[in-house]
Amino acid sequence: MQIFLDCIPCFIRQALDAARLSTDDKQIHEKVVRDVIILAKDLDMSQSPPVMGQKIHRLIRKLAGTEDPYIDVKKQFNNAALQLYSKMRTYIIESKDMLETAIRLAIAGNIIDFGVNSKLKESELEKTISECLAAEFPDMQLKPFQQAINEAEEILYIADNAGEIIFDRLLIEQLPIEKVTVVVKGSPVINDATMEDAVLAGLPQIVNVIDNGSDGPGTILETCSEAFVNRFEEADLVIAKGQGNYETLSDVDKNIFFVLKAKCPVIARDLECEVGEMIFRKSKTFRNAVDLMKEAE
Amino acid sequence: MQIFLDCIPCFIRQALDAARLSTDDKQIHEKVVRDVIILAKDLDMSQSPPVMGQKIHRLIRKLAGTEDPYIDVKKQFNNAALQLYSKMRTYIIESKDMLETAIRLAIAGNIIDFGVNSKLKESELEKTISECLAAEFPDMQLKPFQQAINEAEEILYIADNAGEIIFDRLLIEQLPIEKVTVVVKGSPVINDATMEDAVLAGLPQIVNVIDNGSDGPGTILETCSEAFVNRFEEADLVIAKGQGNYETLSDVDKNIFFVLKAKCPVIARDLECEVGEMIFRKSKTFRNAVDLMKEAE
Predict the structure, then answer these.
(1) Can you say whether the dihedral through the CA atoms of A142, A147, A149, A154 is positive or negative?
(2) pLDDT for A65-106, tens place per residue?
(3) Per-residue pLDDT, A137
(4) Residue A7 and residue A13: Cα distance in Å, rounded?
(5) I want to staple B166 with a disulfide (CB 3.0 to 4.6 A). Which of B81, B232, B235, B295 is the partner?
(6) What is the pLDDT of residue B289?
(7) Residue B8 is nearest to which of A10, A12, A41, comparing CB atoms?
(8) ipTM of the complex
């Protein structure tokens, strides 16, 4: 997905939010805003929005002199999610369709997105869980998803944020875990999950976990490690979590299921849905096994 | 009130909204955003936000090649307000305190602010009227206001927006009209009221109406006509309507009552109130007749 004009004020607002979270120094806040304006002046609108996000958050970390401004927020929401884990697991076990319930919960976890909302309160988690369990879900494509899982040999689950990764664990537990590799960021950016968060979620005990070698929000393939890009190319199914992964991978020719809560009006417009809606959608170029066999002939 | 960092993304968002309202040409939308970014790059933060607003809206009118992009919106809300006029007048006549009810209604009319919300629907007017009639109003200073009106010899009522000016008429009718001069903008900016709107509200039949000679939102004294500035200096009481007038006059040494709905978080912070609250507040340097007599001695 490309950058839209509406993204530009949002970049500056996000940068200011992040600068305030990183330091109380008002001079640095102003310097961040002024430097982001300079970045915006020569913006290439054909890039995906996270390319700008990567530049902004590099700038903030440098100016604020901190490697990980979101470290406390990540800890807080990891803990909050861990406390909800057993309860959510019970919801899944007691539900009619365990896979569907796990997908709904994974999407609920996507509310923990400090790029979109830096004022999120822990108390909003349970409310979002209830909403996501009860909401209409026109986008739910359970059968094609089950078929894709069965057909795949290598599944990449590209995680999004800390805290949210505990919710992801619930969905991962419903997948054929021997096929699954979970991907986290190479180094901190916003509240995106890194290896530390995956370990805290207990993921390495049940699946393979790798990092993408990048500090970009979403999956900016050009800035990821060669090792990750190879794994991405080899995988026959990708589950891409959250807005950043949708923004960066929506135009990539690959079998991807995008799993997210559409929280921003620009992304909602791109997805032709309402803000707040749950999204569980195949990539435009998604091909099932039959298509792929035909192409191989 | 000075420009805060939070105003900068808001300027760009407002500019994009206004550009879209002015033309369907997407190249002009992008040109507007890029030019506003250039303006923001060298922004003097000690100015009041409407100084930037004036520059932005001059730019949009020039690039879109239209003198008054908001002409349709102004007509629409003038008509909508006119249709509500008799009903609102009845509310006032039947109320316990006619002046207080008229103030509440004048504040309700301040919702018609296309700088803040370019997506306002006519249907929101009646809802806002009901809310403003019923809401707690801790800021209401009826007695000091009545005293100031009685003491004053020349009252300037600085109007804000088209549509809203019909609501203002209801408050003006409760004032000693022989002392009142209503002020409108010299030429179009956003949906601010000009002489045409004052005429449509029937104001010249009941009070003196002048324009301020400026195309700035609010009252940017430096860009107003000499004739207006003289009237402003001579007046012993100013009633300043809406956010723009608060932003531009809050630091001016003058007897002013600010009458508005706080719709933006930055202004709400400056006023130490919640977003959405009704504001009816004396300027910091407000002096009553006794103070003024002491000063003259």
Answers:
(1) negative
(2) 999 999 999 999 999 999 999 999 999 999 999 999 999 999
(3) 92
(4) 10
(5) B81
(6) 67
(7) A12
(8) 0.87
* C-alpha–C-alpha distance, residues B131 and B121, integer Å: 16
In a domain, B1, yes or no: no
- Tell me which chain A residue has its CA closest to the CA of residue B45: A30
Contact A8 B5 (CB under 8 A): no
For residue B198, what are the domain limits?
A: 71-294
Q: How far apart are CA A141 and CA A156, in angstroms?
A: 18
Please indicate, yes or no, if residue A212 is contained in any of the structural domains.
Answer: yes
Among A64, A83, A113, identify where a domain stops.
A64
Q: How many contacts (CB atoms, under 8 Å) link A and B?
A: 43
Contact check, Cβ <8 Å, B34/A45: no
pTM listed for this prediction: 0.90
CA distance A227 to A140: 32
A-side interface with B, Cβ within 8 Å?
Answer: 5-6, 8-10, 12-13, 16, 29-30, 33-34, 37-38, 40-41, 45
**Sheet of B278-282, strands arranged across:** B208-211, B180-184, B155-158, B237-241, B256-261, B278-282
With tokens 């760009």, the residue in question is B12
pLDDT, residue B91, reads 97
Alpha helix positions (H), chain B: 7-22, 26-41, 49-64, 71-93, 98-109, 123-134, 142-151, 164-172, 195-200, 226-234, 242-249, 265-271, 289-296
Whether A2 maps to a domain, the answer reads no
- Whose CA is closest to B246, among B262, B233, B232? B262
**Between chains, do B5 and A40 touch, taking CB under 8 Å as contact?**
no
Asked if residue A96 and residue A51 are part of one domain, the reply reads no
Per-residue pLDDT of A162-198, as tens digits, reads 999 999 999 999 999 999 999 999 999 999 999 999 9
Predicted confidence at residue A44, as pLDDT, reads 95
The mean of the pLDDT values for chain A is 95
Number of domains in chain A: 2
A16–B5 CB contact, under 8 Å: yes
Low-confidence ranges of chain B (pLDDT < 70): 289
Q: Do A9 and B12 touch (CB under 8 A)?
A: yes
Q: pLDDT digits over B47-82, tens only?
A: 999 999 999 999 999 999 999 999 999 999 999 999
- CA gap A163, B59 in Å, rounded: 45
Q: Indicate the SS3 state at residue B157.
A: strand
What's the confidence (pLDDT) of residue B170?
98
DSSP 8-state assignment for residue B26:
H
**pLDDT reported for residue B82:** 98
Percent over 70 (pLDDT), chain A: 100
Point out the residue among B9, B16, B34 whose CB comes nearest to the CB of A12.
Answer: B9
Identify the three-state secondary structure at position B21: helix
